[in-house]
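Tokens in:
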């Protein structure tokens, strides 16, 4: 459920008309609903009620300061994967002991930053990372709390570019080597092993792979305990999928996912962490764009937008589907037209969708991409020197620009022309 609904034929974000935002900030832009963000966070929090737990928002999905400040205020911890995300979380007032640090390539600078600023735990992904973190911690005279990310070799049945739990992926250590790696960590005085981490992929629409992975984690917990390790925390990652197509069956609910977690690991007496991103932010955002031209091709019509692949790269990168809807609802009984919906960037990959049935559109009409809150703005770029598009946050009947559109001058001023040219 989200808060983007039609009222008298006009698309609203909560109590604000999308057309009013477009008039104020220009197109294209991202718009997020505070109510949806909060609701989705609380669905997870409630799904784990009764267990000692922390829901850490995967900031990579949507890291605008306003959004993370809002979620932190609701009680979310943060899952960060870079020094930049760590700095953002701290700037939003999140305490170090509510921040987990994930990722396969943490640098010495990132380790230092987090050890000095405070960290709940590092999710360590390899032996070399372990050795380096140990050295950095000893150098600073502190002990780094860690979990070790295990790769359970489970097929997440999602797009190949976002599956992470198979042995061929770069993530975690093979679960078969866990015993040896935990023993190695136990011998490093700069590290304190507190648990196990697992994350098998993103946009999972079936609970079975989670169940397989979490059962393996439960078995591993018992085994490592019998080998003398203290396993008191399980980080179960993110990955629960969202309905990108309204017409399709819905993926499992956070409540089903919570019940699964309780069933698999609930009796181990561990503190549970999860790292959802997409399910919290995905359907909390739209990307709104204006139709620039309708162009007649030889055998098709192109709807050419003012938004492009640099603004929302998911269709080009993962063949991802986004529902695309008119901001002004079509009259009942209007017959649809078929369009290839494209951006203005100079490559054929700049295609959002092909042969999509839509209400007839004209130049100047506004359209909205649904489910664009997650991995939308954060993955955008200024390719073709198209300035980053603004982000807007709505709450009730108010809205605010939470990231401004740079002017051409701002964009140019970031480059430096050496005086010797
Ligand atoms: N934890 C870890 C360690 C992760 O690698 C990820 C996502 C998450 C949590 C959050 O997963 P989520 O709940 O959002 O599925 N750009 C891609 C998605 C990449 C996901 C990367 N890792 C997309 O647009 O579909």
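Residues out:
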């Amino acid at each position: 459920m989200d808060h983007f609904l039609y009222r008298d034929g006009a698309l609203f974000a909560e109590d604000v008309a999308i057309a009013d935002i477009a008039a104020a900030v220009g197109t294209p832009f991202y718009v997020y609903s505070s109510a949806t963000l909060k609701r989705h966070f609380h669905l997870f929090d409630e799904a784990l009620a009764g267990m000692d737990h922390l829901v850490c928002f995967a900031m990579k999905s949507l890291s605008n300061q306003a959004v993370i400040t809002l979620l932190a205020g609701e009680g979310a911890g943060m899952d960060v994967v870079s020094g930049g995300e760590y700095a953002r979380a701290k700037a939003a007032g999140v305490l170090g002991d509510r921040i987990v640090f994930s990722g396969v390539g943490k640098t010495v600078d990132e380790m230092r930053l987090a050890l000095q600023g405070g960290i709940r735990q590092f999710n360590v992904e390899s032996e070399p990372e372990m050795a380096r973190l140990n050295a950095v911690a000893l150098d600073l005279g502190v002990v780094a709390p860690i979990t070790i990310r295990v790769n359970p070799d489970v097929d997440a049945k999602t797009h190949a570019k976002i599956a992470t739990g198979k042995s061929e992926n770069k993530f975690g250590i093979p679960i078969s080597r866990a015993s040896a790696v935990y023993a190695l960590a136990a011998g490093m005085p700069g590290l304190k092993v507190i648990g196990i981490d697992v994350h098998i992929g993103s946009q999972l629409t079936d609970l079975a792979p989670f169940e397989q992975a979490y059962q393996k984690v439960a078995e591993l917990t018992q085994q490592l305990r019998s080998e003398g390790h203290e396993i008191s925390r399980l980080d179960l990652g993110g990955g629960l999928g969202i309905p990108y197509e309204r017409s399709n069956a819905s993926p499992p609910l956070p409540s089903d996912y919570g019940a699964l977690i309780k069933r698999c690991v609930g009796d181990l007496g561990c503190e549970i962490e999860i790292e959802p991103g997409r399910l919290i932010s995905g359907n909390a955002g739209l990307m709104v764009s204006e139709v620039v031209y309708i162009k007649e091709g030889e055998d098709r019509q192109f709807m050419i937008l003012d938004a492009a692949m640099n603004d929302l790269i998911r269709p080009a990168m993962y063949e991802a589907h986004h529902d695309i809807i008119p901001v002004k609802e079509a009259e009942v009984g209007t017959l649809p037209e078929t369009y290839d919906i494209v951006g203005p960037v100079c490559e054929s990959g700049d295609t959002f969708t092909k042969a999509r049935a839509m209400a007839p559109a004209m130049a100047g009409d506004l359209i909205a991409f649904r489910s664009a809150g997650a991995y939308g703005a954060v993955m955008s770029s200024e390719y073709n020197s198209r300035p980053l598009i603004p982000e807007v946050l709505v709450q009730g009947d108010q809205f605010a620009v939470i990231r401004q559109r740079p002017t051409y001058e701002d964009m140019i001023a970031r480059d430096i022309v050496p005086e010797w040219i």
